[in-house]
Amino acid sequence: MIQIGMNCDPEWLCDTIAWIIGALLALLVIGLIRITLRERRKNKKTYVVKPRNRRANRDDH
Fold first, then answer.
1. DSSP letter string over 10-23?
2. Domain residues of the chain, as ranges?
3. What is the pTM of this model?
4. pLDDT of the chain, 61 residues: tens digit per residue
């Protein structure tokens, strides 16, 4: 187990704190992955150019 500079007197307390920190970090990683995927999908939709718009833009030039 990793010690952060203090001895744990009741070991169950330190184990509980370690599990809580681990769960929070896991939730943070999952949240960041979800946000990243959502933004990537949103950006992908933004750059899709419809064929009729491209044709209209070519006719203007």
1. SHHHHHHHHHHHHH
2. 34-61
3. 0.55
4. 555 666 777 887 888 888 999 999 999 999 999 999 998 888 776 655 666 655 555 655 5
